[in-house]
Amino acid sequence: MKKEFVVIGLGRFGGSIVGELISQGAHVMAIDHSSDRVDEFASIATQAVVANSTDEAVLKSLGIRNFEHVIVAIGEDIQASILTTIILKEIGVEKITVKAQNDYHEKVLRKIGADFVVHPERDMGIRIANNMLSNTVLDYLELSDEHSIMELKANDNIAGNSMIDLDIRAKYGITIVGIKRGTEIIVSPQADDKIQLGDIMLVIGADADINRFVKKAM
Ligand code: ADP
C-alpha cells in the first residue's frame, strides 16, 4: 500500500519534500494558500489544493485526519505554523512534522505536541561543517541527543582487519551494522568479514564512543 502524506506550504523546503515523496512512490496532498504555488505542483503532487491551513473547517473538509503524516512547511509566518500545528493536533493527525524558524519557535512546537521538529538550515549547516572538518565521518543520522549512526570511511589503519580483529563492540561499545563497498552493502557483517580500504562502515552507538573509536583507531 502506498504511503499517504500531506505537505502544507510549498516553498523551497515543502516543495522539495513533495518532489522527493512523489519520486519515491508516495501519495501526497500538497496545500498552499497561494494559487500560484499550487498551480506549480498541480502536475507533480497526487492532489494540489489551495487552502489556508489556519482554517480548521477547511482542513477537516479535506479529510486531513485520514493521512498518515502531515508536514507543516510554512516558512516565515510563525503564527500560521503554530496555529496549523494546534489544529492538526486537535483534529487527531497521527504524525506531525513541522519546520521551525528559530529556537523559540521549536520550543513552542514541541510544547504543543509536534511529533518531529526540523530546523533545515541549522541542521544542514551543522552537517556540512562536520563534513568539512572530517575526512572520516562522511555522514550521520542523529538517533537521540547522544546516539547516532555514522558513516565512517575506512582508512589504512582499519583496512585489512576483520570484525574480530577490530573487536570494536568490546573495546568501544559501538557496533558496525553494515559495510558499503561501492554499490554493494554487507548488512550485519560476520566475525570474519574483512574491511577493505575505502569501505564505508555504518557504525551505531553513543557519539562519545564513536568519536573515541575515530580518534584512537582511525
Ligand atoms: P521556504 O523557506 O521553505 O521557501 P517560504 O516561507 O518561502 O518557505 O514558503 C512557505 C509557503 O507556505 C509559502 O508558499 C506560503 O504561501 C505558504 N503558507 C504560508 N502560510 C500559509 C497558510 N496559512 N496556509 C497555507 N499555506 C501557507
Automatic annotation (TrEMBL):
UniProt record, GO biological process: potassium ion transport
Domain RCK C-terminal: residue ranges: 135-218
One GO MF term attached to the UniProt entry: monoatomic cation transmembrane transporter activity
Pfam families, per database record: TrkA_C (PF02080), TrkA_N (PF02254)
Superkingdom of this protein's organism: Bacteria
Domain RCK N-terminal, chain residue ranges per copy: 2-118
Listed InterPro entries: NAD(P)-bd_dom_sf, RCK_C, RCK_C_sf, RCK_N, Trk_Ktr_HKT_K-transport
PANTHER family: KTR SYSTEM POTASSIUM UPTAKE PROTEIN C, POTASSIUM CHANNEL PROTEIN 2-RELATED-RELATED
Protein name: Potassium transporter Trk
